[in-house]
Amino acid sequence: MSAPERPAAPGGGLISGRKHALDGLRTIAVAGVFFFHTVTELVPGGSIGVDVFFTLSGFVITLLIMKEYLATGRLRLGIFYAKRLARLWPALLALCGVIVTVGLVFPASKWAGQESYVLPAVGYVMNLARIGLFSESIAGETLGPAWTLAVEEQFYLVWPLLLLVLLRFWKVRTVARITAGLAAAFLLERFVLVLLGAPLNRLYNGPDTRADELLIGCTLALVFTTVTHGSRSHESLRNAARWAGPLAGTALLAAVFLLKEPDTPGLWFSAFWTAGPTVLSLLSAVLIGSLVLQPAGFAGRVLSHPWLAGPGRDLSYAIYLWHLPVYLLLMPLVPSLWLRVALAAALTVLLAIASHRLVETPVRRWANARLEPAVVPSSPGRSADHTGGRGADRGHELVAAGRVPAGDQA
Question: DSSP letters along 301-316, please?
Fold first, then answer.
């Protein structure tokens, strides 16, 4: 799908280059999820890592879409989805293959009888299966965490196309406002579901009941796309980030240890499952924005440390996939809780390293070698021909109006 083009421009934009602090944030988030599943009593709010992941995912994916849109004047949806599959599917398929094989060889293990969960996992419908859309609701057991992947992929079936349609008719700032409005609409829908007595698994796993968290991340990305480095808006955001970022980070950290998501109907249940995910996502967005705006700040320096940023960049996805299957496998084998947690952490990291080196990286390199040439920015002449001359003119207007910063957007 094509869209008005913006010419390449020298220099770095506000969000150019990789933000290593966000990789470190991924490590912290996946650690929270790990401890939530292993020592829930000590880390009752560790599932907040999922809320952080949703917000961060919406932010990063929207930046990637905007990068290609602004650089080439289009987004090739087929290439976009092929790269998503190449990034995510191999590790998930490997996980399913290992679990099923071990379960067949050792039928007394916790990995036995998992075959029925493979299709919902690899088909990215685990969240719908957990709701009970296809038959009786399932937990998914070892493959249960695939519900979050399903929520994201279902969202990305719609969001790129919707974003490009919106960008055809409105300025980026207006699109950011519309996106924020969509997030508010899904918050309102969740409120209605709570009023109607929707069960917890519907509120927890629904693609619609989590859409506001992804859209908040998308909104943040669109807002940052409109901010020019060094502009008055940039300085105002930086000033706000100096105090808002630490407050948001502190609130999220406190919630990890103090917040227990309610599972029994009542006033707190209704209040939390109406506004809780939105509040957690907004706090996550503030923290993410602060890390982007202040990469040299204290939190940015800590999270950018290679010991945090490296695992977040290379291993966090595989750690998320493997941590629960490994822990469940060890439960009947290692009676001591803390020894079991330590072994689960070590084995999970080792399996994540193997997944990264033996599965994810080779497939990604193979896919990129074939897909990257398809998204190389078009020359000005070719773009003008393709858009009837409107693309280049539109791009110059965007830069001149300050609607997008010059430089790389990812």
Answer: HHHTSHHHHHHHHHTH
332 in any annotated domain: yes
Helices 232-258/48-72 angle, 10° precision = 150
Per the structure, the count of domains in the chain is 1
Phi (first) and psi of residue 12, to 5 degrees: -105, 135
Residue type, 251: A
Distance CA 285, CA 59 (A): 8
**CA 340 to the chain's CA centroid:** 29
Distance CA 120, CA 110 (A): 19
pLDDT by residue (tens digit) across 295-347? Answer: 889 999 999 999 999 999 999 999 999 999 999 999 999 999 999 999 999 99
4 within a domain of the structure (yes/no): no
Region at 376 (left for phi over 0; alpha for psi -120 to 50; beta for the rest): beta
Greatest C-alpha distance within the chain: 70
Residue 406 lies inside a defined structural domain of this protein: no
